[in-house]
Amino acid sequence: MTDPEGPSVVALGGGHGLHATLSALRRVTGDVTAVVTVADNGGSSGRLRGEFGVLPPGDLRMALAALCGDDDWGQTWARVLQHRFDGQGEMKGHVVGNLLIVALWELLGEHVDGLDWVARLLDARGRVLPMAITPMDITAEVRGADPAEPDRVSLVRGQVQVATTAGRLTSIRLDPPDPSACPEAVAAVRAADWVVLGPGSWYTSVIPHLMVPDLRAALEQTAARRLVVLNLGEQTGETSGYGPEDHLGALFEHAPDLRVDAVLVDPTSVRDHDPLEGAVASAGARLVVADVALGDGTPRHDPVKLSRVCARIFGNVSGSAAWR
After folding, report:
1. How far apart are CA 239 and CA 144, in angstroms?
2. How far is the C-alpha of 322 from the C-alpha of 324, rounded, in Å?
3. 65 in Cβ contact with 81 (< 8 Å)
4. Domain boundaries in the chain?
5. Where does the record place a coiled coil (predicted)?
6. Is the pTM above the cut of 0.85?
7. Rounded distance, CA 293 to CA 49, Å?
8. CB atoms closer than 10 angstroms to residue 141
9. Which one of 51, 140, 210, 225 has the minimum C-beta count within 10 Å?
10. Distance of alpha carbon 119 from alpha carbon 113, whole angstroms
11. 3-class DSSP state for residue 280?
12. Rounded to an integer, what distance in angstroms lies between the CA atom of residue 104 and that of residue 179?
């Protein structure tokens, strides 16, 4: 049961990974804020972004749907929000929630107000904010994008293109390089008890938050404790060949001053404990090894399992030994 007096938690990410985190956190506390990456350039979001010049609404919509309650009202609206039109006309592929969000942005002229109104309509168990209020693109340096030239480093532009590229990503940048952070998101991070990073597409959903200057400063300076939830496995096109320690290493490569208090990993994703334990110890964090996988053969987190482990972490993070 959700604790209305639970800690204030801010979760950062995007897409399906953030959806799982928020679905877990709304079961733990009544004070949840999602800070969502906004660099998508594909699908319905990309089309609306191109036509109206707005932030891509898709990941914001998914976060709102994740915060819907388990009652009939919440689950009905979650399904409506996520409904994708079929057919053969211009509406094919558009998602109801994306259209609703953009409509409110046009009517109100303000991103945060529009998202707050959608949350009120859904009776969402939390707040959803964009990480930045500036439309942006992700660019990545990729080694070996052309199999014929495995050592050549090339530049790939666009979230969809980065997420599906061949080769190995070495770093990402945002264009523009200094997008304006959402002030409400910065304030939420600074005021939080806990900040949760991950899981999700590492280079296109998680790390981009660290590339927004004011948001990165807030993440480094906040008095909140920080939990990193590692992916259950590598992601083809972004983190091929990565182990959990490589995911953690990529995080610190982009934000070397980021302090972490706890790192959560599912035991099935750890091939060799020593490198991961070394990386976690170097960060001064506590390693939590716990069953959080959905267990259906897909690399997805189970929101119920994740909620139980998060509640445990939020209640007791002292010490430095791994939890097994």
Report:
1. 13
2. 6
3. yes
4. 1-31+181-324, 38-130, 137-175
5. none
6. yes
7. 34
8. 16
9. 51
10. 10
11. helix
12. 23
Listed in sequence order, the residues at least 6 apart from 293 whose beta carbon sits closer than 8 Å to its beta carbon are 232, 266, 268, 299, 300, 301, 302, 305
> What six digits make up the tokens of 310?
């998060």
- Complete DSSP assignment for 54-92: PPP-HHHHHHHHHTS-SSHHHHHHHHHHH-B--SSSTTT
Query: Which residue is associated with the tokens 């400063």?
Result: 217
Stretch 218-232: mean pLDDT, rounded? 97
**How many residues in total does the chain contain?**
324
Under a CB-based contact definition with an 8 Å cutoff, are residues 119 and 65 in contact? no
Q: What is the mean pLDDT of residues 145-149?
A: 82
The helix (run of H) or strand (run of E) holding residue 96 is helix 96-108
258: amino acid identity, one letter: L
Interstrand relation of 32-36 and 168-175 (parallel, antiparallel or unpaired): unpaired
End-to-end CA distance of the chain: 25
Bridge partners of residue 262, in order along the sequence: 227, 286
Angstrom distance (rounded) from CA 180 to CA 295: 39
Across the chain, where does the E strand assignment appear? 9-13, 32-36, 127-130, 137-143, 153-157, 168-175, 194-197, 225-229, 262-265, 286-289
What whole-number distance in Å separates Cα of residue 187 and Cα of residue 203?
A: 24
The three-class DSSP label of residue 194 is strand
The superfamily CATH assigns to domain 1-31+181-324 is CofD-like domains (3.40.50.10680)
Sheet of 168-175, strands arranged across:
153-157, 137-143, 168-175
Q: Which residues pair with 288 in a beta bridge?
A: 264, 323
User: Looking at residues 296-306, what average pLDDT do you find?
Assistant: 92
Pairing mode, strands 153-157 and 137-143: antiparallel
The torsion of the CA quartet 187, 193, 197, 198, rounded to 10 degrees, works out to -120
| DSSP states of 161-196 | HHHH-SSEEEEEEEESSSPPBPHHHHHHHHH-SEEE
Q: What is the pLDDT of residues 165-187, one digit of tens each?
A: 887 888 889 999 999 999 999 99
